[in-house]
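Ligand: D-xylitol-5-phosphate. Inputs:
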Amino acid sequence: MKIAPSILSADFSRLKDEIASINDADWIHIDVMDGHFVPNITIGPAVVKALRPHSDKPFDTHLMISDPEKYLDAFIDAGSDHITFHIETVDDPDRLIDLLHGKNVKAGMSVKPNTPVDAIKPYLSKLEVVLVMSVEPGFGGQAFMPDSLDKMRYLKRLREENGYRYEVVVDGGINVETGKLCLEAGADVLVAGSFIFKTQRRNEQIRKLKP
Ligand code: DX5
Ligand code: ZN
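Predicted complex:
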């Protein structure tokens, strides 16, 4: 079980210290929002680039933006190790996945609460990351949607049956209780924002999520 703190809930006035202090994190989850695909605006490639020298953890960039292909190079050059995009935002997912692999970046696709896993089924064999949204994308601090557990179970089963390699990542409303449910349902990585950053004891919060 890996833990990916979402810096969306970190103190934006001191992001460098925030990411440097979370030693027990496995990945750093970076929520990119454009005010178009989702009703919020957050972090762009310049901020990702500025943070890159201050952490040796993989940067797991979650693009909640329309037309992600337009900004793919910028987020790759900024130092993203994984880039996840939403199926709704692209015409040709294969092209993005191939572009990412061509630059040695792990490719991820995400399903929102109302998007079925079957919508991304044709691409699963090529992905390193599948991100199950357990809240509506846009904001931290929302309540976990239990319907997402079935998607994790299904993704785990599909991986076993077909020999796929993706990690199942769950994002939204994760705390000790919901994290445990996700683990039981087959999630490999928990993204958590407010649970980790709501106290000053970030590493302690991360360890609480690890069974
Ligand atoms: C929501 C983001 C999440 C969010 C999670 O659109 O994708 O990564 O930061 O925050 P919590 O853990 O507070 O639900
Ligand atoms: Zn996210």
